[in-house]
Amino acid sequence: MTEREPEVFVICPTGSIAKGEAKAFSLSRIGDNGEARPFPIVIIHTAAGGFVGYVNSCPHDGKWLNIGSGQFFNAEQTRLRCGRHGATFEIETGLCNAGACEGQSLQPIALAVIDGDICLCGVALVEDIGFPFDDLDETMEIMIHPD
Description:
Helix content is 3%, strand content 33%. With 147 residues, the protein is mostly beta strands. The protein has one domain (8-126): Rieske Iron-sulfur Protein (3-layer Sandwich). Strands 1-9-8 form a 3-stranded antiparallel β-sheet, with no helix packed on it. The protein has a 3-stranded antiparallel β-sheet with strand order 2-3-4, with no helix packed on it. Strands 5-6-7 form a 3-stranded antiparallel β-sheet, with no helix packed on it. The chain is globular.
């Protein structure tokens, strides 16, 4: 049996997310059936200087955390907050401590910092297999957003 290398995908340079800030990314992952599925994520540069990431989806109803205002945090910047119903989550663990999904957690994603880049690990992305176009016009922009 051959050991496979883990999937690693560069998301962005570490310097592109300021300490104490969060940034959303819309990716496309390969589902179990081989088809592309939306994969929205959020990466947080913690006040302590580390990076954590979650699927950008509230466990209560599946909406983006930053829906509406575009903000990820509560007013004090001490918790992640769902823009739809106001549930709050611990930044370091993703555990909901108040709101409709109290006791549930955001789905974590595996991150690694490699050569100054924040990388997503262990997820097969459509971006890894290239674009399905023969002639990619440089004016084309491909953006994938969840339903």
